[in-house]
């Protein structure tokens, strides 16, 4: 919205408020950051056994996203990589970030099927993109 927020206001000092708002923003989008049309493609890619082929496929899928989704993903994952750099202080490892953001950024159009298996693969996709950030987003 056009509401002006004063981030120096004391209510924003709790990092959980800001991180919760960020996660809520992505969860409330009508379509996730990874569009429904790409969900099965990303899941198939992360299941590939050959690491080099899996990496190229996921990179190509990221580049096939609509420009707004691609650019938002690049910005968000750059930030999440910075969060992970401080994992000793914040206890947010690559795996932790993937568990928190996987189901939010990448979800199927319908909740049918094995949600537990989906969640494993959703987390693996996010973890892969975080681990391969500089390969996927070489800028």
Automatic annotation (TrEMBL):
One of its GO terms (molecular function) is GTPase activator activity. Keywords: GTPase activation. The gene is Arhgap27_0. It holds the Pfam family RhoGAP. SMART domains: RhoGAP. InterPro entries: Rho-GAP, Rho_GTPase_activation_prot, RhoGAP_dom. PANTHER family: RHO GTPASE-ACTIVATING PROTEIN 27 (PTHR23176:SF104), RHO/RAC/CDC GTPASE-ACTIVATING PROTEIN (PTHR23176). Residues 1-137 form the Rho-GAP domain. GO terms for cellular component: cytoplasm. The lineage of its organism: Eukaryota, Metazoa, Chordata, Craniata, Vertebrata. This is RHG27 protein. It comes from the Eukaryota. One of its GO terms (biological process) is signal transduction. The keyword S-adenosyl-L-methionine does not apply.
């Amino acid at each position: 919205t056009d509401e002006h927020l004063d981030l120096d206001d004391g209510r924003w000092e709790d990092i959980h408020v800001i991180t919760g708002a960020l996660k809520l923003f992505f969860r409330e989008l009508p379509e996730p950051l990874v569009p429904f049309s790409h969900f099965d493609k990303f899941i198939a890619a992360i299941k590939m056994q050959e690491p080099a082929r899996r990496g190229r496929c996921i990179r190509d899928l990221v580049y096939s996203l609509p420009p707004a989704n691609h650019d938002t993903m690049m910005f968000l994952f750059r930030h999440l990589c910075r969060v992970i750099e401080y994992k000793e202080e914040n206890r947010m490892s690559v795996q932790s970030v993937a568990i928190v953001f996987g189901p939010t950024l990448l979800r199927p159009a319908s909740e049918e099927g094995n949600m537990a298996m989906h969640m494993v693969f959703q987390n693996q996709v996010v973890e892969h993109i975080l681990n391969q950030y500089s390969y996927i987003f070489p800028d």
